[in-house]
């Protein structure tokens, strides 16, 4: 499993250490109306915004037993990136490979801490809420969507050819075969759950 946050012009942040658990919270909205002599009645109002939260840490030193890649970010640099997401008014795209999670989100809660005996490591708790278009009812009765951030891929694309693999494409187009995971995360909806089953003719968006 790999966890990414895509933002800006196809930039991405890759979490270096996977959490032990990822929690998803879903619930239905409703309105309670109290009718005289009949009591309370609940009326469904549609789905509420979904929340996703997990905890992990940014290690100061690379350790192959738990780090997902060798060139891990400096913990303070990683913290600053998350702080920017927290105060930003623009959503980012959360991608968690092998889970089907590929959704625009806001980072709404971020807590960090230091632990004795682990100098330089920074532990964190994150909570995301899924983003969706807000819609307004017009005077004519129609529904008008508010203008929001366009998160559709607009970068360079690559058309899969016979004999291609993600590592081969990553090496040719991105300069390193090791970047195949980022390539897969950005195109998981096109490729499907198995990163090895790419098909000729598929158009893949290239990460920067």
From TrEMBL:
UniProt-listed Pfam families: LysM (PF01476)
Source species, domain of life: Bacteria
Gene3D superfamilies xrefs: LysM domain (3.10.350.10)
Database matches in CDD domains: LysM (cd00118)
Residues of the LysM domain: 156-206
Protein name (database record): LysM domain-containing protein
Provenance organism: Saccharibacillus endophyticus
Organism lineage: Bacteria, Bacillati, Bacillota, Bacilli, Bacillales
């Amino acid at each position: 499993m790999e966890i990414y946050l895509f933002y800006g012009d196809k930039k991405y942040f890759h979490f270096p250490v996977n959490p032990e658990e990822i929690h998803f919270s879903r619930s239905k909205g409703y309105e309670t109306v109290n009718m005289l002599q009949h009591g309370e009645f609940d009326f469904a109002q549609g789905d509420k915004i979904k929340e996703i939260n997990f905890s992990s840490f940014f290690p100061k030193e690379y350790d192959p037993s738990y780090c997902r890649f060798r060139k891990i970010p400096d913990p303070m640099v990683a913290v600053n990136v998350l702080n920017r997401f927290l105060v930003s008014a623009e959503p980012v795209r959360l991608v968690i490979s092998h889970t089907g999670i590929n959704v625009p989100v806001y980072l709404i809660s971020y807590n960090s801490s230091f632990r004795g005996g682990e100098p330089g490591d920074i532990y964190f708790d994150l909570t995301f809420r899924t983003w969706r278009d807000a819609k307004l009812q017009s005077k004519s009765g129609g529904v008008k969507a508010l203008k929001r951030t366009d998160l559709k891929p607009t970068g360079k694309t690559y058309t899969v050819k016979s004999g291609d693999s993600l590592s081969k494409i990553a090496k040719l187009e991105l300069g390193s075969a090791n970047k195949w995971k980022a390539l897969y995360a950005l195109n998981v909806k096109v490729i499907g759950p198995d990163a090895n089953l790419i098909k000729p003719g598929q158009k893949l968006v290239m990460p920067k």
